[in-house]
Design goal:
The complex is a heterodimer of chains A (184) and B (422).
Chain A (H helix, E strand, L loop, with lengths): L1 H19 L3 E2 L3 E5 L9 H5 L7 E5 L35 E7 L2 E6 L9 H9 L4 E5 L11 H5 L5 E5 L22
Antiparallel strand pairs in A: 2-7, 3-6, 4-5
Chain B lengths: L1 H22 L26 H24 L2 H18 L6 H13 L5 E2 H17 L2 H5 L2 H9 L8 H7 L2 H14 L5 H4 L4 H5 L4 H16 L3 H5 L2 H11 L27 E2 L10 H33 L4 H15 L6 H9 L3 H38 L8 E2 L21
Antiparallel strand pairs in B: 2-3
Helix pairs in contact in B: 2-3, 2-5, 3-7, 4-5, 4-9, 5-14, 7-12, 9-14, 9-18, 15-18, 16-18
The chains are: A alpha+beta (184), B mainly alpha (422).
């Protein structure tokens, strides 16, 4: 009786790896944001199991217009274009603005301060070239079985990507996902 | 014909021009005169995958050591140290991911969906503890599972629950398992991970409700030992089944049981089966009748379970995000109540049509209709087997652990007066 039961139970356990053999991936997958799907809804900041979120803003300098009037750095409707805290869009002051030459400015992200709210990303996409975008920092990500941001992500931008290519970089020449608004 | 071709050519040229113009950035790339060089596009660090393989090696090593401690060395002290190690390593260092309990969902998802590639580590974390359970009993629970370890280490004052309460509560893990497999297989949610009570403690970072749930469980666990393992853990259901057929298992006594009854009441999990006394033995005739009656009840229960779940299937589909969104949008259309959830706002921005969404909703609901009865049938079958097993009685001449329920924690060792002669 016991032996029969054992055989009956071992069988599925042995069949399982065989059945799943073709579906396994040895190198594994990690969660990543597709910057072209992301709508900067702000869920990344609040839904990550990490505090602050493992989602960080990264900057593709080659796409950047180095604008003086930066949609990602300055709050809309500011009176003066300066580095004053009241003018900055980033709630944590994680973006530093550096003068390069007239009329260009370089913007760099301080990753330690960034909390992944995506406000600057939205600003840059709406008014600029879209060189700022969100990525999941794989060094901080807990790699949950069920990414709690992916569960909430309304635009399905977060999916598993192969572990040998852990980031989805934006490069120059990639189509701006939002076409230019003629009224601008 | 020629004219048509001409028009098409013009159109194509215009189209390609349009794409080309659109591909341009809004603001052209600046031409620096000061010799400024573009900084490198820095991405954060990549995750080294070597850790996952180390996890598998540690898992096998920990299981082997626990087996040796429980079956051969018979040392409760050793098992506690092992629990402490697992709690620190799998819990606090590796932060509770990946764990065998949650891997049930990965396996379910991979079995029923072609699009998902299960990580090799997840498959190994699912199968290895089961293999050990099949050979040596639930040693995984004894000293390797971080969820079990945190409860084992905080269970100071064991109190026994009344048998009636116990027998009702042990049904919960079956329901939890059925639902978590159903939800994972239908790509809706990973409820085991989502409602993991201790992972917040491992990460020292969690939403308020999760911390409260975990703390309450731990607090209850001081008296009702291992509440999660006993009344919630879905992986425990599978381990329980495998452990019943274990080749070797932890024994209370190192040699031969002398029926001294000293260990009778020490197990907080009610997992010690007493040896038979002539008093509580039933008449064979009556016993046989009950056995047959319960056996006939099994198919009835399966059908009943399937029917119940068939009915609640569409309601269960509400755990799926798409279904909820579709319902919100439909409410907006029908009653005019504006859909303001973040999902709905993003949906309106994204430019997917409502018809697509409703079609998706229908597809998910029909999948739930098809799959739910199986979950119900599983629950019916489990209940049926449970009832049948109540009527089975084997003659016992010794006190021994119930192989399904015993966590191999080793609490009973010190109560046995029998010593091995050297």
């Amino acid at each position: 009786m016991k032996r029969a039961g054992r055989v009956l139970i071992v069988a599925p356990l042995l069949v399982l790896p065989v059945a799943l053999y073709k579906k396994t991936s040895a190198s594994g997958h990690v969660w990543q944001i597709d910057p072209f799907k992301c709508t900067q809804c702000g869920q990344c900041k609040t839904n990550c199991v990490r505090t602050p979120s493992a989602v960080k803003c990264v900057h593709a300098f080659v796409m950047c217009g180095y604008c003086d009037l930066c949609g990602g750095y300055l709050r809309q409707g500011t009176k003066t274009i300066s580095t004053g805290a009241e003018n900055q869009l980033c709630p944590t002051g994680a973006i530093t603005r550096k003068f390069v030459e007239e009329p260009y400015f370089e913007y760099t992200i301080n990753e330690d301060l960034c909390d992944g709210c995506g406000k600057c990303v939205k600003g840059c996409l709406d008014f600029g070239n879209g060189s700022l975008y969100l990525q999941i920092n794989q060094d901080l990500c807990a790699d949950c079985n069920d990414c709690s941001i992916a569960r909430k992500c309304p635009s399905d931008a977060i999916s598993r990507v192969p572990a040998d290519q852990q980031y989805i970089p934006k490069e120059r020449g990639t189509l701006n996902p939002k076409p230019l608004n003629p009224s601008e | 014909m020629k004219r048509k071709l001409f028009t098409y050519t013009i159109f194509l040229i215009l189209l390609s021009l349009h794409t080309f113009i659109n591909a341009q950035d809004r603001f052209p790339r600046p031409e620096f005169e000061s010799g400024y060089e573009y900084p490198e596009h820095q991405m954060p660090l990549e995750r080294p995958h070597i850790w996952e393989y180390i996890d598998v090696i540690v898992l096998v090593a920990a299981l082997s050591i626990t087996t040796w401690l429980a079956l051969k060395k018979r040392s409760r002290q050793g098992l506690i140290w092992m629990s402490l190690f697992s709690l620190i390593w799998f819990g606090f260092v590796r932060e509770g991911c990946i764990c065998s309990v949650g891997s049930v969902q990965n396996v379910a998802l991979a079995l029923f969906n072609d699009g998902y590639a299960i990580p090799l580590t997840a498959l190994l974390f699912f199968t290895i503890p089961l293999l050990f359970a099949l050979f040596f009993g639930r040693v995984f629970c004894a000293g390797v599972c971080p969820l079990g370890a945190i409860q084992e280490l905080t269970g100071f004052k064991p109190v026994k629950l009344p048998k009636s309460v116990e027998s009702v509560m042990i049904a919960i893990p079956f329901i939890y398992l059925a639902l978590s497999v159903l939800f994972a297989a239908l790509e809706s949610q990973f409820i085991i991970c989502r409602y993991d009570p201790f992972v917040g403690i491992f990460r020292l970072d969690a939403p308020y409700t999760m911390i409260v749930f975990g703390a309450l469980l731990l607090l209850a666990g001081v008296f009702i030992n291992r509440p999660y393992c006993r009344y919630l853990c879905p992986y425990g259901v599978i381990l329980n089944l495998f452990s019943r057929f274990a080749g070797k298992h932890l024994t209370i006594t190192p040699a031969e049981c002398i029926n001294c009854r000293l260990c009778e009441d020490v197990c907080p999990y009610d997992a010690i089966i007493p040896s038979d006394t002539a008093l509580n033995r039933e008449e064979p005739e009556q016993s046989r009748k009950r056995f047959i009656a319960n056996l006939l009840l099994v198919p009835v229960l399966i059908v009943a379970g399937a029917l119940v779940f068939q009915n609640i299937g569409p309601s269960l589909s509400k755990v799926s995000q798409e279904v909820r969104l579709a319902q919100e949008i439909r409410t907006e259309k029908e009653t005019g109540i504006e859909a303001i959830s973040k999902d709905a706002v993003a949906f309106k921005e994204a430019g997917k049509t409502e018809d697509e969404l409703f079609a998706e909703e229908l597809r998910i609901i029909s999948r739930y209709r098809k799959a739910s009865p199986w979950a119900g049938a599983f629950l019916g079958l489990s209940l049926g087997i449970g009832l049948v097993s109540l009527t089975l009685r084997t003659k016992r001449t010794e006190y021994k652990p119930h192989q399904g329920k015993c966590y191999s924690c080793g609490r009973c060792f010190k109560y046995c007066p029998v010593e091995v002669k050297k």
